[in-house]
Amino acid sequence: MFILVTGGSKCRKSAIAESLFNNFRYRKFYIATMMPYGDDAEKTIKRHHKMRMGKGFETIEKYTDVNNINIPEKCGVLLECIGNLCANEMFNDMCNNILKNPIEKITENIKYISQKSELFVAVTNEVGSDGTEYSPETMEYIKNLGKINCNLTSIADVVIECIYGIPVFIKGDVKLC
Amino acid sequence: MIIITGGAYQGKKDYVEKTYNISKCQMLNGKECSTEDLIQTKCVYNFHFFIKRDSDIFNTAKRLVSENPDIIIITDEIGSGIIPLDKNERIWRENTGKICCYLVRYAETVVRLNCGLPLILKNVGKEIKK
What we know:
The structure holds 2 protein chains of 2 kinds.
Chain A: E1 2-7, H1 13-19, E2 28-32, H2 39-52, E3 57-61, E4 76-80, H3 82-91, H4 102-116, E5 119-123, H5 136-155, E6 158-163, E7 166-171
Parallel strand pairs in A: 1-5, 1-6, 2-3, 2-4, 4-5
Antiparallel strand pairs in A: 6-7
Chain B: E1 2-6, H1 12-20, E2 28-29, H2 35-40, E3 43-45, H3 47-53, H4 57-67, E4 72-74, H5 87-106, E5 109-114, E6 117-123
Parallel strand pairs in B: 1-4, 1-5, 2-3, 3-4
Antiparallel strand pairs in B: 5-6
Helix pairs in contact in B: 4-5
């Protein structure tokens, strides 16, 4: 089962994504894609870490190439988040400067994780709704993440949009606990 | 408490006017009102701008729940974009999310407007206490 959780800033996406594993009995991994640079990132990482404490997730930090993770059979995977992953794939390759098209790469890698795991929950972001014109690089990022999200919703069994802590099912249905 | 959200210019005030019988001139503007006015009012719009102006917003939100639990709050959704470079803008955007998550827990009704169409996100007879 692949569940995609989306929404804007501070809408409790993570809390809802984590709660999907409440009744999951097998081993579970948390793939953290956020690079720990800068005050804000550190704060977010600490906050998420605190939220996950005692919930039994094994954390794997992987900023790019998330297909290079060995996922044993019958495991749960929570990946957070596609927005960071997309930025990392695009902007953090020092040799190639900018990866022109991360859409196919990320779509394929996410598909791979979803096939390997028993329950896969990915958290993504909605970044295209502030009506602001940004630099060409940022516009490219918005476009890429938008297209990746479209690809992922077509693969996902369930898609949940969080609005201020309220989960809205925009594709499929699953019992929340 | 009733919370009406959605993007800018999606018909939120019109919806409140029609559904709850409150004219626009009775609505308080969050861009310029005082905390005390907010605590007294039946309905506030531009609540996201009030969040930006209030340095003690988490306390104000608590006061709203206890002192004005029947308020109708109209607020724009502002969290679905690129993370702002400016620190104050970042804090505002995140506080809007946090404050709205907090208030939604106590609200009996939450509606999102999109192109003038309401999507009922929550509707319970009684407020939920946590």
